[in-house]
């Protein structure tokens, strides 16, 4: 290797910035899967000269608050303690950082990082998070939109659940004793039973409860009576 090539190699190594990636997924929605986020972040890192050395992942966690988001808590704690070995944090977009109902809370956690000299980059956003007036305005709007999306979705989901309950369908939770969950189609015809942990796969299908089989009730009685407060009650078929 020539001296010029050697100098260029050392120059390239010197310009690489060590970074951590933060990914979050609240549901199994494919667009926001942690794998898809990580892939987009790595493309961004390659194009911008970042080397990802740490991954903080919150899977199946809501972005409404920091409670329960152990990875984000650990990230903020590491930054605050000054024990990090990276100088940047790469996040897919503003909503993955959080859908906080108070947009200032999202800004507060980012400020903790910036105060420690660690920049937060939103890889899929169309603005550069460079502290300019334009980026600050756009980022503020994005944070408000992220929080508003959760509020609107919550209202829509609640209204939809109320409507389905009025139609006689069950909404969440295990079936009561002596009952079992069944899958019904749009016409109300039973398509089959659902065992514990199983979920419907077709959006238009609904879940209802029906009386359990005599065999299952008999099995419960063989197991012994269930004591409710001061009396022992047998299962009835």
Compute the CA-based radius of gyration.
Answer: 26 Å
What oligomerization state is this entry in?
Answer: single chain
Strand content: 15-25%
Number of helices: 7
Portion of residues in helices? Answer: 40-55%
**What distance separates the N and C termini?**
85 Å
Strands side by side in the biggest sheet: 2-1-3-4
Indicate how many domains the architecture comprises: 2
CATH homologous superfamily annotation of the largest domain: Resolvase, N-terminal catalytic domain
User: Architecture of the largest domain, CATH level 2?
Assistant: 3-Layer(aba) Sandwich
Record field, number of beta strands: 9
Write the layout of secondary structure elements.
Blueprint: H1 3-15, E1 17-25, H2 34-48, E2 50-59, H3 70-81, E3 88-91, H4 94-97, H5 103-115, E4 119-122, H6 133-166, E5 179-184, E6 190-194, E7 206-211, H7 214-223, E8 226-228, E9 231-233
Parallel strand pairs: 1-2, 1-3, 3-4
Antiparallel strand pairs: 5-6, 5-7, 8-9
Give a written overview of the molecule.
The chain has a four-stranded parallel sheet with strand order 2-1-3-4, sandwiched between helices. Strands 6-5-7 form a three-stranded antiparallel sheet, with no helix packed on it. The chain has a two-stranded antiparallel ribbon with strand order 8-9. It has seven helices and nine strands. It is α/β, with parallel strands linked by helices and 237 residues long. The N and C termini lie far apart (85 Å). The radius of gyration is 26 Å and the shape is elongated. It folds into two domains: 3-150, Resolvase, N-terminal catalytic domain (Rossmann fold), CATH 3.40.50; 179-233, no CATH class. This is Resolvase/invertase-type recombinase catalytic domain-containing protein.
